[in-house]
Specification:
Blueprint (H helix, E strand, L loop, with lengths): L1 H29 L1 H4 L1 H16 L4 H19 L11 H54 L1 H15 L7 H33 L6 E4 L1 H11 L8 E6 L5 E5 H18 L5 E8 L15 E7 L30 H11 L3 E6 L5 E7 L3 E2 L1 H6 L1
Parallel strand pairs: 2-4
Antiparallel strand pairs: 1-3, 3-8, 4-5, 5-7, 6-7
Helix pairs in contact: 1-3, 1-4, 3-4, 3-5, 4-5, 6-7, 7-10, 8-9, 9-10
């Protein structure tokens, strides 16, 4: 199958070369009396050089031979014969053919060298990214695994007597470590889904207020030293979104805020509904559904704000671990639902994430009144 495709590709390249040289030669034939054969030779040389930038070597060599034949037959006197009347024109044709061949071969080799360098650079960058991922995973996965193994060893130990209260604390530690481990694995799986393009949002009516409180319940251990403020209207309509993807978006943003802000910091989750959004005339790019997650922590360095959504990127002066996948997954899940996400630092400090979704709405208050 692969051999057949390569043969088909090569045939197409030969066809492109033949058509290119023929078309340019015919156009030059119309202006032969004005341009002269030397200028036409330069034009054909440019054509072969352009072909060498994109095609394989053998079609390019064939275009060089074909150009020399056309130059001789159509443009060097006497016309329509391969006979050349002067030694000067013979030397010109020989040099044209030689330069065309050398130029085609060199251009092709330069292109191959550039391609090899690009592949090498991509591999080096990929290795750097995966080394960064492995370094972070060695910490992020080892910590909860060590916690789980240590707690289990203590519980199962026959030489250490532990009270029921301490036993329950150990079980609680195992649960927290398991959730943290599951979160990291989920992030890796989600990044894999994003890279392979297999995410197909399952759009359905979604109660964002319920979703937010579900996320907060899952993160109660991480948020126990933070002040949480939820600003959601009681009459907030239902939005047509993917519940699972939206839950992961809010989970990752709140989890990040809990990890990168000091104890006692405030984390605010706000949901706004913009009725009567006109998508045809919308200079402010308003969205019917806007979710804002902000905190009063230290915010992000201005020089790094544009990079925080990049895969594997971690803040340079960050003391907290992490794989650098959370925010890139957030952006991927937002864009999978045709939404937008904006990060900025608040006027009084802290970070502000604004997410907008072009979602359909269902006004539950009007339904209940009916």
């Amino acid at each position: 199958m692969k051999s057949t495709l390569s043969q088909f590709k090569l045939r197409n390249q030969y066809l492109i070369c033949i058509l290119s040289v023929c078309i340019v030669s015919l156009l030059c034939l119309l202006t032969r009396d004005f341009l002269g054969h030397k200028v036409i030779g330069y034009i054909l040389l440019v054509v072969v050089s352009l072909l060498a930038m994109f095609l394989d070597i053998f079609p390019v060599l064939m275009s060089a031979v074909l150009s020399a034949l056309f130059l001789n037959f159509l443009f060097i006197q006497p016309y329509y014969t391969f006979h050349i009347s002067t030694s000067e024109d013979t030397l010109f044709l020989f040099l044209f053919f030689l330069i065309t061949l050398i130029n085609g071969v060199l251009t092709h080799k330069i292109r191959k060298t550039e391609k090899k360098l690009q592949i090498k650079e991509i591999r080096v960058n990929t290795m750097k990214l995966y080394n960064a991922l492995l370094d972070s995973l060695s910490h992020e996965l080892r910590t909860p695994i060590s916690t789980i193994m240590g707690a289990i060893d203590t519980i199962q130990s026959k030489t250490v007597l532990i009270s029921d209260e301490n036993r329950q604390k150990l079980y609680s530690e195992i649960e927290k470590a398991s959730l943290r481990l599951n979160h990291q694995v989920e992030n890796l799986l989600n990044m894999s889904r994003l890279e392979t393009g297999v995410i197909q949002p399952k759009i359905d009516w979604c109660d964002l207020k319920e979703l937010i409180y579900n996320v907060l319940d899952h993160l109660k251990e991480d948020l126990q030293f933070h002040k949480i403020v939820v600003d959601v209207d009681d009459n907030l309509p239902l939005f047509k979104l993917d519940y699972g993807l939206t839950e992961q978006i809010i989970y990752n943003l709140i989890f990040n805020a809990s990890q990168y802000t000091p104890k006692g910091a405030k984390i605010q989750i706000k949901v706004e509904y913009n009725p009567n959004v006109d998508f045809e005339y919308n200079p402010d790019k308003l969205m019917p559904c806007v979710i804002t997650i902000s905190d009063d922590g230290n915010g992000f360095p201005e020089a790094e704000i544009d990079k925080v959504f990049d895969k594997f990127y971690r803040l340079q002066n960050s003391k907290t671990g992490g794989t650098g996948l959370g925010l890139s997954i957030v952006k991927g899940f937002v864009e999978a639902q045709h939404g937008t996400i904006l990060l900025e630092n608040g006027e009084e400090g802290g970070s502000v994430f604004k997410i907008g979704f072009p979602a359909l709405i269902m006004n539950t208050a009007a339904i209940s009144n009916e």
